From TrEMBL:
<keyword id="KW-0808">Transferase</keyword>
<dbReference type="GO" id="GO:0006654">
    <property type="term" value="P:phosphatidic acid biosynthetic process"/>
</dbReference>
<feature type="domain" description="Phospholipid/glycerol acyltransferase">
    <location>
        <begin position="46"/>
        <end position="174"/>
    </location>
</feature>
<keyword id="KW-0012">Acyltransferase</keyword>
<dbReference type="GO" id="GO:0003841">
    <property type="term" value="F:1-acylglycerol-3-phosphate O-acyltransferase activity"/>
</dbReference>
<dbReference type="Pfam" id="PF01553">
    <property type="entry name" value="Acyltransferase"/>
</dbReference>
<dbReference type="InterPro" id="IPR002123">
    <property type="entry name" value="Plipid/glycerol_acylTrfase"/>
</dbReference>
<protein>
    <recommendedName>
        <fullName>Phospholipid/glycerol acyltransferase domain-containing protein</fullName>
    </recommendedName>
</protein>
Length: 243
């Protein structure tokens, strides 16, 4: 079964569009969409790295912000230990999540080095095949200030494996809608729609990097640049909103 038929059936895409309507309850705006124009070229793909990771609405927010003609080329690595567990409940959870965003299992530390490497190899193959990945470089949610948050190096490693660009994506306002620990979203404050901004930054292209150093150092350098870009995106937009 092809990736198209497995991950992007008409029913799945229709369900995702319906679910995304929930974001119409917010003042939802997109900044920097023109920076994605290169993805319209045949065979081009990238890694969308969104930040900060607040909750389950982050992923559909990024999908909604991407132009409709590019959504059929998006895939989301999803934590296998959370979204793709064994058993009936695990399969139901995986199916339900597939109706929100197209995703595949990504194994983390508990799967061991072999499991993590196999997941990275699969993700890299998707990228080489022309699919863009949407991932949280944090890996999990955090309550720390943006500057103090740590990025894992998986996104950087995928970029090194494939030489695909990384697109920083700032998510502003999501932390008020569905903060960590909250189950029911809060879309309004004092009767006014909460503001949500999805900001696409300039792509980080490895063609401009010196890639002759040790792999782990390269991962750290790329991750440091990504974090700086993400924090700047979020800070600049929040300042402009007066927050």
């Amino acid at each position: 079964m092809s990736v198209e038929s497995h991950f992007h059936t008409p029913l799945q895409e229709a369900a995702r569009d319906v679910f995304a309507r929930i974001l119409k309850l917010t003042d939802f705006q997109v900044v920097g969409r023109d920076r994605l124009a290169f993805l319209e070229e045949t065979g081009r793909s990238a890694i969308f790295a969104f930040f900060p990771h607040t909750g389950h609405l982050d992923s559909p927010a990024v999908r909604k912000a991407v132009p409709p003609n590019l959504r059929g080329k998006l895939l989301y690595p999803a934590a296998a230990d959370y979204w793709h567990k064994d058993g009936v409940r695990g399969r139901v959870k995986a199916f339900m999540s597939s109706l929100v965003v197209p995703n595949f299992p990504m194994y983390r530390y508990e799967a061991g080095i072999k499991g993590m490497q196999e997941s990275l190899d699969q993700a890299a193959e998707f990228l080489r095949s022309g699919y863009s990945l949407v991932a949280s470089p944090e890996g999990t949610r955090s309550d720390l200030p943006l500057q103090e948050r740590q990025l894992r190096t998986g996104v950087a490693e995928l970029a090194l494996m494939t030489r695909k660009p990384i697109i920083p994506v700032g998510l502003i306002g999501m932390e008020q809608i569905l903060p960590r620990g909250r189950i029911i979203p809060s879309f309004r404050e004092d009767g006014v729609k909460r503001s949500v901004r999805v900001v696409f930054g300039e792509a980080i292209n490895l063609d401009t990097h010196d890639l002759t150093g040790e792999r782990r150092n390269l991962r750290r350098e790329i991750s440091a640049q990504l974090k700086a870009d993400l924090v700047n995106l979020c800070t600049d937009v929040r300042t402009g909103l007066g927050s």
